[in-house]
């Protein structure tokens, strides 16, 4: 290449881990094809789908050489399949962009995210707003829900500050992998990018990247996220895994991103809330699957359920219900009504989540 010729724009590897996505996959792929930024390649990882997902993906791969399809020989759990998608990122790619099979990207998504990353070489993780078609999802760095800052307020923070804000209970700015752009070299240096033992492994991955890079937020709605019944979100609600995720990630990353006083105070607050939630589930007579999930997740971070704290929280919850019987009865009715309804429907499982 002549020295007078401009260097090519950075390559973006786009990956879609897909499981039974025939209803929405074409819309997802079309959104990639419609990107104003054209220097990308695209890999769709079919996770043993039982519908037309593989057929649809192969149809598009025949039309555009930038698209290829990987067909898993065996079914993988959600995080394992996402790690398989990461392994498909091109060695030449500078950035990686996830888009789940039932989500899609606005046309300027790649252009705006790559622009920001190129303007700020220290940034390893770029986030944008998402929408479900009705609401702005998550918050920006301003912490205000359903309110988008103007584009000229795009922000950069040190990785330490961005991680610390979230660990201290600040706004959730990372969204989902569909709303993130990750510098590919920071993904490649990890043997497994997603912790396969933790349902909220995407949050862990963000903290890992922020250990050695800065964080950027583009104040534009550039990703669309579809609510799905048997998703990690529904599993999180059924198994109260969000507060569990907050607790274990605080234990793992708090000492690194917070000072001792901050970590101590925040640990006390989050642990108190976690055991308050567990106490409610004792009184709801949750099944063994619920408790096995919590114990297994805690074990991967070197801790176990503290029976003393749990009993103390149960006693406090019982006395609270005695003092306020009206709200207690209303809450119990809602819970047991939902439980009865679930008995007649298929319960979501981690292996059944679209991945």
Commentary on this structure:
The structure is a single chain. The protein is of the alpha/beta class. It folds into two domains: 12-224, Spore Coat Polysaccharide Biosynthesis Protein SpsA, Chain A, CATH 3.90.550.10; 236-350, no CATH class. Helices cover 45% and strands 15% of the residues. Strands 1, 2, 3, 4, 5, 6, 7, 8, 9 and 10 form a ten-stranded mixed β-sheet that branches. Helix 2 (53-63) links the parallel strand 2 and strand 3 (67-71). Helix 5 packs antiparallel against helix 7, helix 5 (159-167) crosses helix 9 (241-257) and helix 10 packs across helix 12 (307-323). The radius of gyration is 22 Å and the shape is globular.
Number of helices: 13
Average pLDDT, rounded to a whole number, is: 87
Question: In total, how many domains does the architecture comprise?
Answer: 2
Helix content: 40-55%
Stretches with pLDDT under 50, minimum 5 residues: 346-355
Descriptors:
Spore Coat Polysaccharide Biosynthesis Protein SpsA, Chain A, 355 residues, disordered C terminus, ten-stranded mixed β-sheet
Short précis:
This protein is 45% helix and 15% strand.
Topology:
Elements: E1 12-18, H1 25-33, E2 40-46, H2 53-63, E3 67-71, H3 78-86, E4 95-98, E5 104-105, H4 109-119, E6 123-131, E7 136-137, E8 155-157, H5 159-167, E9 180-183, H6 184-188, H7 201-210, E10 214-224, H8 232-239, H9 241-257, H10 260-283, H11 288-300, H12 307-323, H13 325-342
Parallel strand pairs: 1-2, 1-4, 2-3, 6-10
Antiparallel strand pairs: 4-9, 5-10, 6-7, 6-9, 8-10
């Amino acid at each position: 290449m002549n020295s007078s010729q401009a260097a090519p724009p950075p390559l973006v590897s786009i990956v879609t881990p897909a499981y039974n996505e025939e209803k929405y996959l074409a819309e997802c792929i079309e959104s990639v094809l419609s990107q104003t930024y054209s220097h990308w390649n695209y890999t769709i990882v079919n996770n043993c789908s039982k519908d037309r997902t593989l057929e649809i993906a192969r149809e598009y791969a025949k039309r555009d050489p930038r698209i290829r399809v990987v067909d898993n020989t065996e079914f993988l759990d959600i995080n394992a399949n996402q790690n398989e998608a990461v392994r498909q990122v091109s060695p030449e790619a500078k950035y990686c962009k996830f888009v789940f099979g039932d989500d899609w990207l606005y046309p300027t998504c790649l252009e705006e995210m790559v622009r920001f990353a190129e303007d700020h070489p220290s940034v390893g993780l770029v986030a944008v707003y998402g929408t479900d078609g009705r609401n702005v999802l998550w918050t920006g760095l301003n912490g205000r829900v359903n309110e988008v800052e103007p584009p000229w307020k795009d922000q950069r923070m040190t990785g330490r500050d961005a991680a610390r804000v979230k660990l201290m209970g600040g706004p959730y700015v990372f969204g989902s992998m569909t709303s993130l752009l990750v510098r590919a070299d920071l993904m490649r240096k990890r043997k497994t990018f997603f912790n396969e033992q933790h349902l909220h492994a995407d949050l862990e991955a963000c903290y890992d990247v922020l250990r050695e890079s800065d964080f950027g937020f583009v104040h534009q709605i550039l990703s669309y996220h579809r609510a799905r019944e048997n998703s990690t979100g529904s599993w999180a609600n059924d198994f109260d895994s969000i507060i569990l995720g907050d607790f274990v990630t605080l234990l793992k990353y708090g000492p690194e991103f917070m000072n001792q006083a901050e970590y101590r105070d925040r640990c006390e607050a989050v642990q108190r809330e976690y055991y308050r939630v567990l106490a409610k589930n004792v009184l709801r007579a949750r099944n063994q699957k619920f408790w096995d999930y919590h114990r297994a997740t805690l074990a991967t971070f070197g801790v176990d359920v503290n029976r003393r704290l749990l009993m103390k929280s149960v006693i406090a919850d019982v006395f609270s219900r005695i003092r306020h019987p009206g709200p207690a009865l209303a809450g119990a009715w809602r819970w047991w009504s939902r439980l009865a309804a679930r008995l007649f429907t298929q319960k979501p499982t981690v292996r059944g989540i679209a991945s």
